[in-house]
Amino acid sequence: AVEDVNLVASSLITTRKIIFTPSVDVKKALKEAAISITCYDRDGNVVKRVNSGDSGEIEDPENPGSGGEDASGGSGGDDLGQ
Question: What are the DSSP calls for 19-74, one per residue?
Fold first, then answer.
């Protein structure tokens, strides 16, 4: 949580972790998925939406020596002009 909606940015997305043992297909889908942060006001209106601009690297406890896996995820920025 942040106090000011202007502080919400894709830089808040710092890591992606696999905390269960998914199938290969699920791992691939997770790597390719963009992460989105949506901010709502008290009335439930969307005030800001930010999409991940990270590399999509995933920390995989089953393969700790790999340094993570790359993925093509996210476009960065937001879709509300902010």
Answer: -S---HHHHHHHHHPPPEEEEE-TTS-EEEEEE--S---BB-TTSGGG--B-----
| Digit-coded pLDDT (tens) for 33-65 | 877 888 888 898 988 888 777 665 666 666 665
Residue 55 sits in which domain range?
5-66
User: pTM for this one?
Assistant: 0.38
Gap between the Cα atoms of 72 and 36, Å rounded: 15
Q: How far apart are CA 54 and CA 56, in angstroms?
A: 5
Question: Does some domain include residue 62?
Answer: yes
Would 19 be classed as within a structural domain? Answer: yes
80 in a domain, yes or no?
no
More confident residue, 78 or 59: 59
Total of domains in the chain: 1
